[in-house]
Amino acid sequence: MAERYQAASIKTMGAAYYIALEKDIAGLDPLMDGKSLSRHIDTLDAVARQLGVRPLSEFISMDADALADLIGDDAEGIEVPPLKQFPAQDGLATIRALLPRPEAQPALHDLKDCERILQAAAEQGTGWHFEIDI
Fold first, then answer.
1. For the CA atoms of 89, 58, 34, 44, what is the dihedral angle to 10 degrees?
2. How far apart are the first and last CA of the chain?
3. Three-state SS for 1?
4. C-alpha distances in angstroms, 12 versus 38, 67, 99, 120, 121?
5. Is the pLDDT at 108 greater than 60, yes or no?
6. Are the beta carbons of 2 and 57 closer than 8 angstroms?
7. What mean pLDDT value characterizes the chain?
8. 10 Å Cβ neighbour count for 47?
9. How far is CA 69 from its chain centroid?
10. Please, which residues have CB within 8 angstroms of residue 118's CB and are 6 or more apart in sequence?
11. How far apart are CA 119 and CA 89, in angstroms?
12. Whole-angstrom distance, CA of residue 2 vs CA of residue 78
């Protein structure tokens, strides 16, 4: 599943990952740039695997319409799994494992934004997933 989404992000220059929350959280600004996260996702995923935590790209989930908008004509014939929400604690485990690593430095600002957003989501019991924007 993530491989299909990841392949789409690689094809699109200027792509950005962003967190989509299951529900709005009062007082939380969930905006983030996400471009450095997108540019460095392969490295971050490799480090996550070495650390024994879930790779960030495995938190990507998009509904069929959003995926079709993202990859256009390439979406034809792709079976899209249902939209999935993940527990914020799962994402926090990966983000916090990556933050101190030197390989994460190019995406540090995006990772800190993820930590801020996911911490609020965890406190509220709100699910989340990554989406890709171009």
1. 90
2. 19
3. coil
4. 10, 13, 26, 30, 29
5. yes
6. yes
7. 87
8. 20
9. 17
10. 19, 88, 91, 92, 95, 128
11. 8
12. 13
**In angstroms, rounded to a whole number, what is the distance separating the alpha carbons of residues 55 and 111?**
13
Cα–Cα distances in angstroms (integers) from residue 77 to residues 6, 21, 35, in the given order: 17, 28, 28
CA distance 122 to 75: 33
Residue 81 structure tokens: 């799994």
Strand partners, 129: 20
C-alpha–C-alpha distance, residues 126 and 98, integer Å: 22
Q: Which tokens hold the place of 53?
A: 């935590």
Rounded to two decimals, the pTM is: 0.83
Q: Which amino acid is at 119?
A: Q
- Coil, helix or strand at residue 53: coil
Residues 6+ apart with CB under 8 A from 16: 33, 34, 35, 37, 38, 132, 133, 134
- DSSP string for residues in 89-132: HHHHHHHHHHTTSGGGGGGHHHHHHHHHHHHHHHHHT--EEEEE
15-68-128 Cα angle (round to 5): 65
> Over pLDDT 90: what percentage of the chain?
70
